[in-house]
Design brief:
The complex is a heterodimer of chains A (155) and B (174). With 155 residues, chain A is an all-alpha fold. Chain A has helices at residues 13-24, 26-36, 43-66, 80-92, 105-129, 150-154, and one strand at 136-137. Chain B is mainly alpha-helical and 174 residues long. Helices cover 55% and strands 9% of the residues of chain B. The chains are: A mainly alpha (155), B mainly alpha (174). The A-B interface holds A 7-12, 15, 18-19, 22, 30-31, 33-37, 118, 121-122, 125, 128, 131-138, 140-142, 144-146, 148-150 and B 4-7, 12, 31-33, 60-67, 73-74, 77, 91, 102-107, 136, 138-140, 142-144, 148, 150, 152, 155-156, 159, 162-163, 166, 169-171, 173-174. Chain A: It is found in: Synaptic cleft.
């Protein structure tokens, strides 16, 4: 079975890049120090950006190899695209069987990237939710939110 | 607000009025309406800040059972959040108030302004207000909903909106 089953990084790679650049900026350093009294930690954004980009590159390479009509690594085609796909296939070269669309080592290489990104984002969510709530959440908005004002009813 | 079931209609949910003292605005939870003090709002930047501040109260009213009238801790929590997330305590605004401080000064400002806001609407002592703010501060200061971060300027607000638009992809892939 191909890796992921439809999984993709929680954010587009461009979002990781933007967050890392914002975090690394002098303005953010100043604001973070003003709010929290310490310097911001930006390393995780960079690691996530690298993981995301690597995931996209490997996924793209895998998609090239599995594309219908692209020859298997054992039988490189004559067109440049097919030759490139063949080269990538040989570079991946870990027991790919195009007829069954089964990939072995190449797909397993994606799993650590997926796990890294998921763990990183789960840690962010946990950090945001670790403080208990002061009030009870509503199941539905206030009953009077959309009702006319009382003086409007009296007219 | 719309996503939380409280779509805002400016004719229904906003009222521009003349107010006593130097109050800039308020949220009337009894009728779910934001009051903007037209005689005390000085310029567009001030207006933006007041609207944001009151919308945070409205958002809290929409998403939670906030006991505005008899639970000082609930009121304190919403005031901490509004002071924290509206820009009330930006470095520039504090400097303009001649309040100078840098390291973690934002939190000092948030505490002070939350206490002031509580005292403006409740007939209680400063000590009671301060105690309520202290009890809820850690939880409420770190509650950045609906932004997910403190929106210091338009860039942060834009990123917060981007994350909101991406929420389905985000939560289905973590």
């Amino acid at each position: 079975m191909a890796e992921g089953g439809g999984w993709q990084p929680p954010r587009p790679c461009e979002a990781y890049r933007a967050e890392w650049e914002l975090c690394s900026s002098a303005g953010h350093f100043l604001r973070h120090y003003y709010v929290h009294g310490e310097r911001p930690a930006c390393g995780q954004w960079r690691r996530d950006l690298d993981s995301c980009r690597e995931w996209e590159e490997r996924r793209s390479a895998e998609a090239q190899v599995t594309r219908p009509g692209v020859p298997s690594p054992e039988r490189p085609g004559t067109s440049p695209g097919a030759r490139d796909a063949g080269r990538r296939g040989r570079a991946l070269k870990k027991g790919f069987d195009s007829s069954l669309h089964v990939c072995w080592g190449a797909c397993f290489d994606l799993y650590p990237l997926k796990r890294s990104l998921r763990e990183s984002e789960q840690a962010r969510v946990r950090a945001a939710r670790k403080h208990g709530l002061v009030w009870a959440p509503r199941q539905s908005p206030p009953a009077d939110w959309h009702l006319p004002l009382p003086q409007d009813n009296d007219r | 607000m719309k996503h939380s079931g409280c779509a805002v209609n400016k004719e229904r949910h906003f009222s521009c009025e003349d107010c006593n003292g130097n109050v800039s605005g308020g949220f009337d939870a009894s009728v779910s309406q934001i009051v903007l003090c037209q005689n005390n709002i000085c310029n567009q930047a001030h207006m933006n800040r007041v609207v944001t501040h009151e919308l945070i109260h409205a958002f809290d009213h929409c998403r939670a059972h906030v006991d505005w009238f008899t639970n000082v801790r609930h009121l304190a929590c919403s005031e901490v959040r509004a002071a924290n997330l509206s820009g009330d305590c930006s470095l520039l605004n504090e400097i303009l108030r001649l309040h100078f401080g840098l390291k973690q000064h934002h939190q000092t400002c948030v505490r002070d302004r939350a206490i002031r806001s509580i005292l403006a609407v409740r007939n209680i002592s400063k000590e009671v207000a301060q105690k309520a703010v202290d009890e809820v501060f850690e939880s409420c200061f770190n509650d950045h909903e609906p932004f997910g971060r403190i929106p210091h300027n338009k860039t942060y607000a834009r990123y917060a909106h981007r994350d909101f638009q991406n929420r389905d992809r985000y939560y289905s892939n973590i």
